[in-house]
Design goal:
73% of the residues lie in helices and 0% in strands. It contains 10 helices and no strands. Helix 7 crosses helix 9. The protein is elongated, with a radius of gyration of 25 Å.
């Protein structure tokens, strides 16, 4: 069999007969494509490399369990999509119920340096927030500090929901640019404990 000219499905059928050369050909065909696809979701080169290796290794390990209902490439691309989404979900910080934490206890348990750091971060946050227009600032505070929905803010401020959304997007973009890699939500979380 000429492996380089065989279709993906023909190679996979050979893999199911324990043909390692067919698997190596599939690996070579898809490693780059899956890697490029993964980088569209995840900007961490190492993490994408790990995900691609896992997908292609699982293709070999589970070769006799997999039943294709079409071409192999959509199966592999769907696997990459699912793995990337799972990776991103795991990378997202967990949320906790603020009501279960005591702000005084959180600050009291921290070292003096941590307390100063939190207060400085809050001061910087307040200064940057103060640079927003009064209306944009109010929309942001109602959304993030009062936990109001855009619809509720629109009613309270006599604005359209789209205007509220535009104010929030602009405020978040501004704060993201100001903080760089630091997250606005981290600073906001600390601010909630200090009030």
């Amino acid at each position: 069999m000429n492996y380089s000219k065989a279709s993906d499905n023909e190679l996979f059928a050979c893999c199911q007969k324990d043909d390692m050369r067919a698997y190596n050909q599939l690996f070579d065909r898809f490693v780059g494509k899956l890697h490029r696809m993964g980088l569209r979701y995840i900007k961490d080169e190492y993490a994408v490399e790990e995900l691609v290796t896992d997908i292609l290794l699982n293709l070999w390990i589970r070769r006799n369990e997999i039943t294709l209902e079409g071409q192999l490439s959509p199966y592999l691309f769907r696997a990459m999509h699912n793995r990337a989404i799972s990776f991103l979900r795991k990378a997202t910080p967990e949320t906790i119920d603020i009501n279960t934490l005591s702000g005084d206890k959180l600050v009291a348990d921290g070292t003096a340096d941590q307390q100063i750091g939190v207060k400085e971060a809050l001061k910087t946050y307040e200064e940057r927030l103060a640079r927003l227009s009064p209306q944009r600032q109010k929309v942001f505070r109602l959304s993030r500090e009062e936990d109001m929905s855009y619809a509720d803010i629109a009613i309270e401020m006599n604005l359209s929901p789209n205007t509220v959304k535009n104010h929030m997007n602009a405020a978040l973009e501004y704060l993201r640019m100001q903080y760089g890699d630091a997250t606005v939500s981290t600073v906001l979380l600390f601010s909630l404990f200090l009030y």
